[in-house]
């Protein structure tokens, strides 16, 4: 077995195009096809649906621009973990890495892989109709979960064969879903016979919500309630849980900085290009939703699958379902691959710092951290079986933004504390850009703490459990 090189810089195999494809492929999963239903239920107006996506887009691109300065200063594998460790010390780096392994990275892999399974069931109804493999009370293991695990293990195996294998797969699947999304956007304007755009925009800045559920927890279509003032702010924060989660994982490219050509320039370029392109696509897809479906059609799409209903309107019931199922399968497959490829590099870097299992340190003969990949893949598979991946991800969106804020604040902190450090790239419009992110992020987190505490404390608890784990690891290191 080969260890990671001492200088932390493996052979560079990823160019700017590959890095941008990794950014876009890691971002576009299943969220864009689903979460607009929840946004509409929270705010009830086409104006506010667009506003939520614009705010999320501004946040995402501002964070990517800010991260660029750190990526040029610390062009090593490990990305955000490395930034936090270098700026705020080992404990902060470990808490981020702990959250990443326990739920952020692995939970995302599990959730997106299960989404792949659910949309595969559109093409193979037997997957939905089959009896559970195991059931005890409310807990069950289904064939969809088994398919999700199969996808995770397959992509983990492919990535153990070298960066080239993962890169090729990533470029093919990301390119395919970008082309398919552009096609959906164009056809959504050309082929829809009845436009709902004027109706959806007729509410103007008035906001409504309809979050009532029946006895079994399904949302009911009756009774939109007008909301105003701070209630709108709470609704925006709740709505943004979905849009934010659909727009994360772009930082995965920083995890593989050590394998990117000219990382001091190409990492920031890939982040800014990738996030800008994806947020533009997301906005255009939501224009199609507003053009194709009325307010109730978006808010109460079966299982929140707005994109499926839209596709049925464009292509007809049978073909539309198949077209969208294939698009989401391509999208989620490529997304899982990108996240699998990137995450293992963080855990390898943590192992080098004595903060993770030592076995994760080793590269195999193909120059990739095989054991780190398998640890990540196995834990993600366990989360698939737990049935709790969706709940965990709702809870963790708050923590993801919190770590983004700490990292973005690190840009300002280093400018003040260490102004003399070399900065090959400096944050555009500093300090306005990082401050914009910090203000929006702070408002998001505070509003969630006030109005939607179920999205905040569980995620914080998961991360804080890492504090005693950190001291336990440190104690063992000192004893050795």
Verbal overview:
The chain has 480 residues and is mainly α. The protein has 20 helices and six strands. The strands form three sheets. It has a two-stranded antiparallel ribbon. Strand 2 and strand 3 form a beta hairpin. Helix 5 runs antiparallel to helix 17. The longest helix is centred in the last third of the chain and has 36 residues. The protein is globular and about 65 Å long.
Brief overview:
This protein has 480 residues and is mainly alpha-helical. It contains 20 helices and 6 strands.
Q: Layout of helices and strands, plus pairs?
A:
Elements: E1 2-3, H1 16-27, H2 36-43, H3 46-73, H4 80-88, H5 90-123, H6 126-129, E2 134-136, E3 139-141, H7 143-160, H8 163-190, H9 197-201, E4 207-209, E5 225-227, H10 230-246, H11 252-255, H12 263-292, H13 295-299, H14 306-315, H15 317-352, E6 362-363, H16 370-386, H17 389-417, H18 432-451, H19 457-464, H20 466-479
Antiparallel strand pairs: 1-6, 2-3, 4-5
Average of pLDDT = 89
Classify the beta-strand content into a percent band: under 5%
Order of helices and strands: EHHHHHHEEHHHEEHHHHHHEHHHHH
Shape: globular
Class by alpha and beta content: mainly alpha
Number of strands: 6
The radius of gyration computed from the alpha-carbon positions, rounded to a whole number of angstroms, is 22 Å
